[in-house]
Protein: Short-chain dehydrogenase
Organism: Rossellomorea marisflavi
Amino acid sequence: MTIFHNQALENQHILITGATGGIGHETAIAAIEAGAKVTVTGRNEDKLAKLKESVQSPNNLHVFPADLTKEEDRQQLISHAIEAFGPITGLVNSAGIGGGDLVEKLSEEDMRTIMELNYFSLVAITQDVYRGMKEHGEGSIVNLSSLSGLRGTHGNSAYSASKFAVTGFTQAFAHEAIEHGVRVNAVCPGYVDTEMGREAIASKGERENRTYEEQLEVAKSGIPSNRLTSPREVANVILFLLSDSSFNVIGESMKISGGSVMR
């Protein structure tokens, strides 16, 4: 459901990473509906092509596949984005992966992979985009953290550590960036009805010897609203943080928990 005026993000150029995932995909569609020019990236070219086909105004969407762990890819992404739509005024760091296990079963490779994709590459692309925002004296950066970046849960240490890192980075960087007119915030959803969210539920179910359907019911029973969050609901919060309506919202970690985390 669209809740923003079709000119709410007019004259804005938003770069969205991880646009092949459910949240990034929906954020791209919502941003274009709100009048923005949008550049999207991800590693799955087929999913990026399908996104291009699904938006209302394909001329307002620029697609550039990239691996954000590679400096050359990041530089080319930003160069092509600026060439397509001009200076980047908004950045949505939606790229990331799930995974992990009990601490005793975690491999060093798995831990490094999760931190590399969820944290280090996020900081790296932020550094690259922030230089331009700082030069122009304005911008908004929204990082995808998680409720797992606010509290730990059983069997979730590697993913949780990566999202705690994102939350901490958001708060510390917000102090620096606002000195140059750039706002930095995070969104912290719980279970979202996406492929990644469903995989997380299935993985937890396997550890607890439950079917997916049984674990889904367990997950929903711990949420006062008794349902998962939709990707569009997360996208709507992201758009609010990108818009002028959140002009004095700085360094926040906005929970989307269905009431499961109230503090």
